[in-house]
Design goal:
By secondary structure, this protein is of the alpha/beta class. The protein folds into five domains: 19-188, no CATH class; 209-267, no CATH class; 293-300 and 307-387 and 520-619, P-loop containing nucleotide triphosphate hydrolases (Rossmann fold, 3-Layer(aba) Sandwich); 396-502, no CATH class; 630-720, no CATH class. α24 packs parallel to α25 (605-614). The longest helix has 27 residues, at 152-178. InterPro entries: P-loop_NTPase (IPR027417). The chain crosses the membrane at residues 21-40, 68-89, 110-130. It comes from Streptomyces roseochromogenus subsp. oscitans DS 12.976.
Length: 723
């Protein structure tokens, strides 16, 4: 959940009573209370004073009642009135009436309703004498003060004073219910600028107590001054706090940290790009907890009470288990989920906490180029950076394994071990001769089995110094061109990169410095724009290439303090058996992958269930099919729920009086008189069925389930991504 500003919701009551039934019961209880009090006040209750006479002297009631007898009678009547009010208030549920129609109303309607209700009660009870409370107050007042001097005008004034005091006392609970004092304070207090301004992100914490604890008061004061004057933003706060944690881990860095903060203030320990924020922000972020708000959990019965109407958020702790996003085009995957996640990781990279690799089709609105450190555009002549085809490795076998998974990983009819062997038979000898790996055109010529290319390589390879490599190359030359040769198949797949538009890319010359994903030890923001519209096959192959290189490079990282994340905006045809196996190993590497798919049909059938099981977080958008929903329903499992079945049976009355009572009850409730047969049982059901996922998710919503790297998990819940 979104932690900033979260407040647990109060415990909800049971089934809400309808307004008609509530008001009917309250009015009926009020009429019954008035009837009982009328009978009591008119001495129509037999043996009315028997209890009073038992506890008072008998001579009080022999003749004319004395003042003591009148006082005792007033106390007795007031106690009975209180008992009647309490009983019928409970029966008529007056507390719920006041709560629903007075307290729950916004101001000033709340105060006005309480005032009207209080005025009515005061007029009836105090000034009209409906109940015996005024008589009780008069009886308890000393007669010497009340009737002192024998002046009728003075007595009337003092009686009016008693009524006024009793009026104020009677209005006090209505003032509390209407929050009159709070309304007056809000009217008298001017609205400050901080209250009128809506902040999109939490303010950075400016106390810096962790520095003061370690004796760095001067440094803390400098940072506190920067924060108080508004020169420090949330990225600065998160970046400097991370730098301080590195100082605590390695005290040798203390002098450099202190001098940087004292001289540069909020600009200390800057990102290598020199940027302190992104050019634009579309989502709400909390960098102190590394969370990004992606929506709001719906206030529905299926949602647990603690999550209802609370914000939904993700952080590196959940992205470390990888996230699979499935939804048709136009469902909002990119704008409402992928971009906020990429934006959050880019901010964390500026704070020195993460490394981001964003892969999307060219033209996808994922922020300007200025928001990234490296922008690679294969097929675009204006691209400044190039991509290493072999992932920066020097091992021919590792490069062969990588390329085999990229070129043939999505083909079930091709044996990956044979494909890896074919590539290794060529890459090893070529690197031994030239000190580098072949370019795309050179590798394609070798895979095609061109005699000139193979003979030239065999001529340059020393059979004595590299006897094993020479034997491998000789075996490849014998297999070239025979039926079933995988080299031709791999060459055809690689041909989509051997196009004129890619001339100059994937350079493997000695002087070339292509970008490699082995640089993820640094807080980089990388975006790779794929030519999906002009060259869809090449874009799919490059997506598989980046995914394979990312999983391979994160597994070999020595410094895993940074969270590395690959975001594939369109993972169509990018999933292979090798990548699914690699996804399971990313958790221990402090890395994760976000895979966005239009449909699970873009994944080979034998990989769909393993893919859903390999990732820890899932997001099913509105518009998926029932068979896709069945895979999610199977992954999310079942739960035990308590179901209540109520069978209503109409009651038919035979006696006229009973019929009259039933008619009055039907008039008040609007329903016929019935008896309920209730059956409560525990049943096991799917958390979300395939039909509910396909037809019950509204537009702009998604069913989101999250799992953290620590094993904590949240059930699949409906999230409104627009809130």
């Amino acid at each position: 959940m979104w932690r900033f500003g979260y407040r647990p919701r109060p415990q909800e009551a049971g089934v809400r009573v309808s307004d008609r039934a509530l008001l009917t019961g309250a009015v009926g209880a009020l009429l019954a209370a008035l009837l009982v009090w009328s009978l009591w006040g008119n001495n129509l209750v037999p043996h009315k004073r028997i209890l009073l006479e038992l506890v008072t002297p008998s001579d009080w009631w022999g003749g004319a009642p004395s003042r003591a007898a009148s006082t005792a009678s007033s106390i007795y009547d007031s106690l009975f009135a209180t008992l009647v009010l309490y009983y019928f208030a409970r029966v008529g549920n007056w507390k719920e009436v006041v709560q629903r129609y007075v307290i729950d109303r916004p101001q000033p309607s709340r105060a006005l309703r309480a005032a009207v209700l209080g005025a009515l009660v005061v007029w009836l009870v105090v000034w009209h004498g409906l109940l015996s409370y005024y008589r009780l107050v008069v009886s308890l007042t000393p007669s010497d003060w009340l009737f002192g001097g024998g002046d009728p005008e003075t007595t009337l004034q003092r009686l009016q004073l008693l009524k006024t005091a009793l009026t104020l006392l009677a209005l006090w609970p209505f003032a509390v219910a209407g929050d009159w004092l709070g309304l007056l304070r809000s009217l008298n207090r001017p609205k400050t600028a901080s209250e009128s301004r809506v902040t999109a992100a939490p303010d950075p914490v400016a106390d810096w107590q962790e520095l003061r604890i370690h004796g760095q008061s001067a440094t803390a004061e400098r940072l506190a001054g920067e924060a108080s004057t508004g020169r420090m933003n949330d990225v600065d706060c998160a970046r400097i706090r991370r730098a301080w944690r590195s100082v605590v881990a390695d005290p040798v860095r203390l002098d450099a940290f202190t001098s940087a903060v004292l001289s540069d203030g909020a600009r200390a320990c800057l990102h290598p790009s020199g940027q302190r924020d992104l050019p634009t922000r579309m989502a709400t972020h909390d960098l102190l907890t590394s969370q990004v708000r992606i929506g709001r959990y719906t206030d529905a019965e299926r949602t647990p009470p603690a999550h209802r109407a609370a914000g939904a958020a993700v952080d590196p702790g959940t992205l470390g288990t990888s996230l699979l996003v499935v939804g048709p085009s136009g469902a909002g995957k990119t704008s409402r989920l992928v971009r906020p996640i990429a934006e959050s990781l880019a901010l964390q990279a500026l704070a020195g906490q993460a490394a981001l690799v964003m892969v999307s089709a060219s033209g996808t609105p994922l922020g300007p180029d200025q928001g990234y450190d490296i922008v690679i555009k294969p097929g675009d002549r204006t691209s400044t950076y190039d991509l290493d085809l072999y992932g920066g490795t020097d091992d021919p076998d590792e490069a062969a394994t990588l390329l085999a998974d990229v070129l043939a990983g999505d083909w079930t009819e091709v044996d990956l071990r044979r494909a890896m062997t074919v590539l290794a038979q060529l890459l090893g000898p070529f690197r031994a001769v030239h000190g580098r790996f072949p370019s795309v055109s050179e590798l394609r010529a070798l895979l095609d089995g061109e005699p000139s290319a193979l003979e030239r390589l065999k001529t340059l390879l020393d059979p004595h110094e590299h006897s094993l490599l020479y034997r491998e190359l000789d075996a490849r030359a014998r297999q070239a061109g025979v039926p079933g040769d995988l080299g031709i198949v791999l060459s055809d797949r690689l041909g989509c990169l051997d196009r004129p538009v890619f001339t100059g890319f994937f350079d493997t010359s000695v002087d070339a410095r292509p970008f490699t994903l082995r640089s993820l030890d640094h807080p980089l923001r990388i975006r790779i724009d794929l030519p999906e519209r002009a060259h869809p096959e090449a874009a799919q192959l490059l997506a598989r290439l980046v995914l394979a290189q990312f999983t391979a490079s994160t597994a070999t990282r020595t410094d895993r303090s940074l969270f590395a994340c690959l975001v594939l905006d369109d993972a169509t045809h990018a999933i292979t058996a090798g990548s699914v196996r690699a996804l399971r190993r990313l958790r221990e590497s402090h890395a994760g992958v976000v895979l966005s798919l239009r449909a699970l049909g873009d994944v080979p059938e034998h990989l769909r269930q393993p893919l859903v099981a390999a990732v820890g977080c899932h997001a099913a958008f509105s518009g998926i099919t029932t068979w896709e929903g069945a895979l999610f329903a199977q992954a999310w499992g079942t739960e035990w729920v308590e179901t209540t079945e109520v069978a209503k049976h109409t009651v038919f009355a035979d006696q006229p009086l009973t019929r009259l009572i039933h008619a009055v009850r039907k008039l008040g409730t609007g329903k016929p008189v019935t008896t309920d047969a209730v059956t409560v049982r525990q049943v096991e059901r799917e958390r979300w069925s395939a039909s509910e996922l396909a037809h019950g998710v509204p537009a702009g919503h998604a069913v989101l389930s999250l799992t953290s790297v620590r094993g904590e998990h949240a059930p699949p819940l409906l999230v409104d991504l627009r809130g």
